[in-house]
Amino acid sequence: MSAFNLRLGLWVMNPAVERIESDRIVFRGLCLRRLEEDAVKGHWLRKRWFDFRGRALKLGAPITPGIPLFDFLPVTSYATPEHPFRAPCPTTCTEFGWEIYPPGLREVLTIAGSYGRPVYITENGLADADDNQRPAYLVQHLAVLEQAITDGVADVRGYFHWSLVDNFEWAEGYFPKFGLYRLDASGNLIPRNSAIYYRRIAEANAIPQDLLDQFGGP
Questions:
Q1: Handedness of CA 200, 205, 209, 215 (dihedral sign)
Q2: What is the rounded CA–CA span in Å between residue 105 and residue 176?
Q3: CA within 20 to 30 Å of 106's CA: 116, 118, 125, 195, which one?
């Protein structure tokens, strides 16, 4: 089983839905035997758990090995001021150290669409306190999504940007700024420019041409 499949959690999805034997080995090692047997046989787990799937996309770039001793796991975050000892970013990364790779959204949708069920994108966004990356990130990812829907890659029923407001990240605290809105010292919500762009896209149910011209497509 590939490190990519391991990172995306497909060692659970594949044996439970597609009965892929290579991933069943890992599934057996990490889950209760009865749970695994029910999943592979397509019993209650398949019927009840997998009618709905939400998949988050935070990265999609080609896998880069980490520390050689553990090169079976992909790197998911690159160096940031808070984590300077990580591997350097190979292209363009967010403040959280995630590589920006819009085509990865289509790649994940291809996998999700292969299960033949409706797809909801429940978490797509980036940490960007200055809002100098988010507008292009938003436009380019939504352009990829629009094209994927047009091409019939997946039955996408909804898209949810992460996030509406800056939040507390359980492992990193308040430093990553994911919100379309920020909070000032008095607790007031202040929209970032990307919030205005997102509102225009939502109201039009399409990406306005001037935003495509300004920030580019996929």
A1: positive
A2: 21
A3: 195
In order of their start, the domains of the chain are 1-51 (no CATH), 52-215 (3.20.20.80)
> Using omega within 30 degrees of 0 as the cis cutoff, is the peptide bond preceding 163 cis?
yes
Predicted local distance difference test score (pLDDT) of residue 76: 77
13 and 37 Cβ atoms separated by less than 8 Å: no
Look at the block and give the residue holding tokens 């896209």: 201
Q: Which residues of the chain have pLDDT under 70?
A: 1-75, 218
Please state, in angstroms and rounded to a whole number, the distance separating the CA atoms of residues 145 and 205: 12
CB 15 within 8 A of CB 6: no
**Is residue 190 packed enough to be buried (19+ CB in 10 Å), middle (13-18) or exposed (0-12)?**
exposed
Question: What global pTM score does this model have?
Answer: 0.74
Closest to 155 measured CA to CA, from 213, 122, 114: 114
CA distance 179 to 182: 6
Three-class DSSP category at 74: strand
